[in-house]
Design brief:
Length: about 220
């Protein structure tokens, strides 16, 4: 049985005992044995391990992990130190610079966000190499629904940044009277110019956090030396 190692275990630990998760686990076992799958199986729950339930301020919801070698490590849009930032992340950085200033960093490692309370969650937590959406519809969506539901129940308000059609499907699970939902097209090069650029999400998120007596997020990722 997976263990997150923080208060997420109390909030969603019961999901690991449900029939759908048993089916998902069997599917993943076969996939990891017979194909190259990302991220490493020990990194599947990195987002939850790094950002405890009670510390979440902002949720960024992605689609599924990067499907190229060495990129995915269990946190949406983030890549390991030393791996070039993929195009979607570069576009995220461009939007941040246009909103709040700063610079585009030389790293795509988003751990500084996660440590400040930004939950970097994908709707599907695994993918076969070179095959985006290959693990869609296998059970992960039910699991991440449970994560969103647990967050929605929390008394302290938070911000949900939903980029792209898959992420926006989760909006119906969130109480808009308590939490802030900000939706936009996906930041990929195919759709960023259709409304992601100019969305103002990073400024709006911090304004909401300040209004609800919470510390805003420092969106500037420092350069790696």
């Amino acid at each position: 049985m997976p263990k997150i190692g923080n208060d997420w275990d109390d909030m969603i630990g019961g999901e690991f005992k449900k029939p759908y998760y048993a089916s998902l686990r069997a599917f993943l076992k076969e996939e990891y044995e017979n194909h190259t799958v990302y991220p490493d199986m020990y990194d599947l729950f990195s987002a939850l391990k790094v950002t405890p339930y009670e510390k979440v301020k902002v949720v960024i919801l992605g689609q599924d992990p990067y499907h190229g070698e060495g990129q995915a490590h269990g946190m949406c849009f983030s890549v390991r130190p030393g791996v070039p930032a993929p195009p979607s992340l570069v576009n995220i950085y461009k939007e941040i610079v246009s909103e709040v200033g700063g610079f585009i960093p030389n790293t795509g490692y988003l751990m500084p966000w996660a440590e400040q309370g930004v939950l970097l969650l994908n709707t599907v937590l695994s993918v076969r190499e070179g095959e985006p959406n290959s693990h869609k519809g296998k059970g992960w969506e039910t699991f991440t629904d449970a994560v969103i539901d647990a967050l929605d129940r929390r008394e302290k308000p938070m911000v949900f940044l939903l980029w792209g059609a898959n992420a926006r499907q989760k909006a119906a699970r969130v109480n808009r009277e308590k939490h802030l939902i900000l939706s936009a097209p996906h930041p990929s090069p195919l759709s960023a110019y259709n409304g992601f650029f100019g969305c103002g999400h990073f400024e709006k998120a911090n304004e909401f956090l300040i209004e609800t007596i919470q510390t805003p997020i420092d969106w500037q990722i420092p350069n790696l030396e």
